[in-house]
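Suppose a colleague, Dr. K., hands you the sequence of a protein chain of 244 amino acids and asks what its three-dimensional shape might be. Before reaching for any lab equipment, you can write down a predicted structure in token form. Begin with the sequence itself:
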Amino acid sequence: MQINDETRYERNQRFNALVSWLHSIRYKNILRVFEAMSRGRDASRITVVDIGCAHAKLFSILNDRFVIDYTGIEIDPLYADTARSRYAHNANFRVINDSVANCTAHLQRADIVVALETCEHIPEHEVVRIIEAIGEARPGMFVCSVPVEIGPAVWIKNVGSFVTGYMRHREYRWAETFWAGVYQLDRLPPHGTGHKGFDWRWLAQTVRHNMRLIELRRFPFDILPTAFAFSICMIAEPRATARG
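The predicted structure, expressed as tokens, is then:
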């Protein structure tokens, strides 16, 4: 496959109209964040670090609308090469093919650090260190979205995946879907780097320990209780002092 071609990951994201719409929400949300952030900046450049950037779709969405300097960090070499093949001709774009755990120096210069549907795919002990590093770097804002894999939401998502022929439910056994839906994660294998067994609540608490969590958004609709939301978006900022 040529690196300019669409990858399997991208094909999965547009599996059908519903899946495509659900995946688009994270980008619509981040545009809201950037629109608010850019007000009053007098066109000054916004320095963005995108953790787990995949094909750097976020760059293509932001670059047409805002004055940015973008650094994507992506551990998968195919995704990183695909991103470079598409956007490296832009002077304000760079992508680093490495683990973010090895790239924390880049956090120091960021106005905003973004991690969209990424933290669930990183071992949890590494996520803790990454969040600590972001807190110490004190970017103007940290925006992180992750899937909800506990409570009734996981029933809705996995049954819907099965009915439509999508693939997300295949990670689970049906008994595991049931136990996750009633918050009994001890009945599942320990979370690794997939969706199964992931609990967004510990991540939110880790963010709270290191930053000021100013908003918790729910996808696809913010009016949903967290038990029925498909994804959670956390928006945080530095504490007023080192430990507030």
